[in-house]
């Protein structure tokens, strides 16, 4: 939202495992000079439990590196991530070009990179280090799914970047949507939505901002799968029913939070789903019907729906309270 059988979650991660099997209904183009294979029409790539489907898949491969060595990193685009609170720094933005894919050579039909040719690198000694998906992209495991128009997966850093319309990343606990791009750092268990990003939890709590950075805890048992053979106890939860759990969300720019009775806006915020507490700072407005309160900071209890201004000593809270509107709740 990342591998032994009872310990690791089923979040989207193509960087580990054996061979990557690539299939396509429309066939393949193999460019030995550029060392890439293009699969057309209902293309699919599968590695372990992770699957990528798209109108077109482009797999870039290289000679498999000896064990214990890493490739020279490729140049990266500069796309600064937001300044996150000090205890959880935001990872570097996903690179435009990848760098190693640990483990596994590309496996595909006989017309792909597995085919032996005059170049000795066009054999089973190759590995895919970058995978691009274009058109109707769907990436999924047993528990987590992502949708977009285009996706780039860097095998070396285990980073997924998705762009296009209707961007969405779902887990059994929450849904992340975004307008501009979505980044997923599987090894760090971090997801980033950029552009009118929204996180909606399974109990319908919601926070929205220009940029949302979600931090997940690994190895959390997810909701049990429906198949009869799956166990439901936490000590031996099967892979098909495990996923990451959203631990915290940092929000930056035009933060918007809705409770049962109020709408709270501000400049920055942090939300902890387990406690249901959100803290919003910077030009905070609390709106309840026609009533409005302005201040520098607020704490919102999403369980009770109560938002409370928390000013520094000496600061002032201002607002507009419309009399006789039926709102008798207290406010600090």
UniProtKB/TrEMBL annotation:
Residue ranges of the region described as Disordered: 68-123, 216-243, 313-332
Name recorded for this polypeptide: LptA/OstA family protein
InterPro entries for the chain: LPS_export_LptA, OstA-like_N
Bias type Polar residues, positions: 69-80, 225-243
Pfam families membership: LptD_N
Sequence ranges assigned to domain Organic solvent tolerance-like N-terminal in this UniProt record: 30-186
UniProt keyword terms in alphabetical order: Signal
Residue stretches of biased makeup (Low complexity): 97-113
Protein's organism: Acetobacter lambici
């Amino acid at each position: 939202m990342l591998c032994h059988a009872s310990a690791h979650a089923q979040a989207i991660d193509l960087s580990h495992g054996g061979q990557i099997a690539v299939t396509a209904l429309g066939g393949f183009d193999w460019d030995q000079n550029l060392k890439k294979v293009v699969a057309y029409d209902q293309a699919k790539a599968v590695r372990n439990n992770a699957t990528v489907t798209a109108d077109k898949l482009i797999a870039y491969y290289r000679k498999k590196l000896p064990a214990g060595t890493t490739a020279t990193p490729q140049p990266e685009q500069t796309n600064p991530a937001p300044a996150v609170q000090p205890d959880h720094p935001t990872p570097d933005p996903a690179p435009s070009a990848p760098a190693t894919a640990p483990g596994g050579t590309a496996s595909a039909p006989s017309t792909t990179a597995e085919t032996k040719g005059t170049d000795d690198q066009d054999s089973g000694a190759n590995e895919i280090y970058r995978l691009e998906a274009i058109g109707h992209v769907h990436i999924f495991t047993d528990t987590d799914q992502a949708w977009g128009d285009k996706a780039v997966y860097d095998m070396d850093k285990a980073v997924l970047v998705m762009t296009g319309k209707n961007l969405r990343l779902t887990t059994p606990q929450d849904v992340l949507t975004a307008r501009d791009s979505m980044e997923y750092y599987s090894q760090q268990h971090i997801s980033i939505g950029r552009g009118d990003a929204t996180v909606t939890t399974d109990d319908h709590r919601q926070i929205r901002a220009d940029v949302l950075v979600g931090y997940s805890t690994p190895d959390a048992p997810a909701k049990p799968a429906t198949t009869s053979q799956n166990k439901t106890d936490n000590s031996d939860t099967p892979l098909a029913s495990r996923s990451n759990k959203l631990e915290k969300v940092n929000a930056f720019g035009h933060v918007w939070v809705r409770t049962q009775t109020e709408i709270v806006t501000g400049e920055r915020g942090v939300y902890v789903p387990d406690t249901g507490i959100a803290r919003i700072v910077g030009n905070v407005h609390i709106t309840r019907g026609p009533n409005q309160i302005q201040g520098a900071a607020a704490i919102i209890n999403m369980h009770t729906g109560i938002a409370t201004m928390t000013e520094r000593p000496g600061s002032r809270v201002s607002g507009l309270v419309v009399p006789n509107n039926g709102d008798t709740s207290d406010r600090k």
